[in-house]
Amino acid sequence: MSDTRRFQPVSGMDLPRFAGIPSFMRLPVIAPEQAGAEGVQIGLIGVPWDTGTTNRPGARHGPRQMRDLSTMIRSTHPVSRVKPFEACNCADLGDVPVNPTDVQATLGRVERFYDGIVAQGIRPLTAGGDHLISLPVLRALARKGPLGMVHFDSHTDLNDSYFDGDKYTHGTPFRRAIEEGLLDPARVIQIGIRGPVYGDFEDVEWGRAQGVTIVTIDELFDRGIADVMAQARAVVGDAPTYVSYDIDFVDPAFAPGTGTPEVGGPNSYQAQQVVRALSGLDIVGADLVEVSPPFDASGGTAWLAVSLMFELLCVMAEGR
C-alpha cells in the first residue's frame, strides 16, 4: 500500500475551495525532478501551448483555468466509489516550459519533459493545450514499443498537412504518431468523428487503410455507448494504451470553449460514461486537450474538462 499521506488534496473542510493557490484538484505541487524521490505514481501536468492551432486559438490558457476550476473536485468517485488519491500517489507536476513562438522547439521541450517523467515511473495525465501536444507525449511514452489508443474527438487528427505542406498542426498528430511507430494502428480506435470535411475524406480513408477503427458519431448513437466501448476495449486489449480526449468530442452546447466545435455530439453525462467504460485497461497516460477559455467566459467548459480529467484519473488509479 503506497504512502498517501503526503499526497492528499487540501480538503474543502479545512480551506474553502475558493481560497489558496490553485493546483490540479488541490494536490501538492512537486517539481518533476523531485517526483521520483517523492514517490509520485500519477502526475498531473499542464502544457499551455496552442501554436499548432489552425483556426481559433486560446487553448494555451486552458491549463490555468482548468487548475482553478478543479478546486471543486472532491476525493471519491460518485459511481465507482474509487478514491484515486488513496489508491495512488498523485501530484501536480506543474507546466512544461513551452516556447510559444516555435513549434519544433516546443515539441522537443515537451518530449524531454515527459522523458523525465517516464524515467521515474510516473504515468502522466495532461491538460492541454492544442492536440499537437499529444505527439511529443507519445514519443516519450512509446520508447519500448507502439501503444494502443482510445481517442475521443470530433476529428480524426490524421490529416497529412495544412497550408504550405506543414506537417505539424493540431490536425496531424496521430498521422505522425503512426508514421513514427508510436501507435499500433490496429490497436487505435477513434470515437465521435463528425462534422463537414474538405471534400475527399482523405484522413478517414488513410486511417482505415492503416487499420485504425473509426467510429462516427452516428454509429456511436445508433449502437449505443456500451456496445461501442466494448469494441474499444477489444481493440486495445490488455496491452499499454494511451487515452486522448479532445473536449470538442462533446457537443458545444455543453462545451463551447474550444477552437473547432462541431454540433451533434454527446452531452456531458455521455462524455463521462465513455471514460467510465475504460475501467481495467492498462492506461499508461492520458490527455484532455483543446479547452479554450476565451470562447467560454463562464468557465463551464473548463469545469467539464477537469471533471473528465477526474474520470480519467479514477480509471488510471484503479488500474494501478
Spell out the key features of this protein:
320 residues; alpha/beta; Arginase, Chain A; eight-stranded parallel β-sheet; 11 helices; 8 strands
What can you see in these coordinates?
With 320 residues, the protein is α/β, with parallel strands linked by helices. The chain has one domain (5-319): Ureohydrolase domain (Arginase, Chain A, 3-Layer(aba) Sandwich), CATH 3.40.800.10. The protein has helices at 32-38, 62-69, 84-87, 103-119, 134-141, 173-179, 202-210, 217-223, 225-236, 268-276, 300-319, and strands at 42-47, 90-95, 123-128, 147-152, 183-193, 213-216, 241-246, 283-289. An eight-stranded parallel beta sheet has the order 2-1-3-8-7-4-5-6, with helices on both faces. Helix 4 (103-119) runs parallel beside helix 5 (134-141) and helix 5 (134-141) runs parallel beside helix 6.
